Amino acid sequence: MKAVVIGGGIGGTCAAIALKRFGIETAVYEAVKEIKPVGAAISIWPNGVKCLNYLGMKDALRELGGHMRYMAYNDYKLGQTMTRFSMDPLVQRVGEQPYPVARAELQAMLLDTYGRDSVQFGKRVTHVEESADGVTAWFDDGTSAHGDLLIAADGTHSVVRKHVLGYDTERRYAGYVNWNGLVEIDESIAPADQWTTFVGQGKRVSLMPVSGNRFYFFFDVPLPKGLEQDRSTVREDLQRYFADWAEPVQKLIAGINPETTNRVEIHDIEPFMTLVKGRIALLGDAAHSTTPDIGQGGCAAMEDAVVLANLLQTHSLGIEDALLRYQEKRAPRVKDLVLKARKRCDVTHGKEMALTEQWYHDLTEETGERILDGMCETILGGPLE
Fold first, then answer.
1. Rounded to whole angstroms, how far apart are CA atoms 34 and 288?
2. CA dist 66 → 100, 101, 193, 209, 341 (Å)
3. For 184-241, how does the pLDDT look when each residue is reduced to its tens digit (9 = 90+)?
4. In 50-200, at which residue ranges do the beta strands (DSSP E only) sit?
5. For residues 326 and 179, what is the distance between their CA atoms, to the nearest angstrom?
6. Which class is 2-171+268-381 in CATH?
7. What residues does the FAD-binding domain cover (predicted)?
8. Per residue in 29-61, pLDDT tens?
9. Are the C-beta atoms of residues 260 and 40 closer than 8 Å to each other?
């Protein structure tokens, strides 16, 4: 059996590693000539960590991950702690740590595990064709690749998705802009072992520890879509949007590097339940493009990879049958994650400000149990409990 994998990002490489684990021949084709990860870092929650452990990267991941022992929400104006609690109850319940990691380092780990030289770069898919003996992908350089099945992990702008669904999907603007990057840890801004988030005015400023004595930071601001701003004005823009915020936020803004700070308009896609067609399967953002508000986009792609590979290995009624079983297992799960993230996004970013203000009030009475219960429910919905 040979699998053609379209996309060399998190989902595609995880799928290729998982298939290779079972002796399934793989060929990975990536559109860009050099992968430059979108976003500075990613929070890998225990459901994703378990998938990477399963795929043989347990020790390597721990070298990359930050130690996030506490979680805290702070008031935006005075910087006072609204709630702070240990994440140990979550770890004990789900059986694994969360690991925030730099995206570039995660991508390098995945490529090294699979075999960087085995990925063909500069191969942008234009269309796919199914036949009696398999699937062929055609690329914009005139070449093609043939396999017994095809895994489309070609991202939120997936070319293959229309072939599977039979219609075009539209990205939905979630209503806010995110700036993100990496800075050296400064404990006058936030503790080095804590996920710290400042909230107010429907905005958010968050810091997570990653390896190398660095914070992954992000700023969220509800803004109109398509607002003209660029890297040259990043610091001035953030100083304007967060003018009356607490001193640690001002210190963070002063310390960022505009040249390495990303600005992203956040979108998702309405969930759909069709993830396969014949011998073609959608995986990762191609199958479930979500906002980052519950930190499950990358983790869901890792789950997809493990479930798909296991089904292809453990079932013998044919590729089409295994892919339909993949769809049956994954479609409800990923729909739930997309909608949970959307709901959290709306509350966090002031879509209905009365609900957001109530959330701020609730945070001042939060002991951690309610927040951790919700996180555990999401994590334990994964395939490797």
1. 24
2. 5, 7, 8, 5, 23
3. 999 999 999 999 999 999 999 999 999 999 999 999 999 999 988 877 899 999 999 9
4. 70-75, 81-86, 99-102, 119-120, 125-131, 134-139, 144-147, 149-152, 171-184, 194-200
5. 35
6. alpha beta
7. 2-338
8. 999 988 777 779 999 999 999 999 999 999 999
9. yes
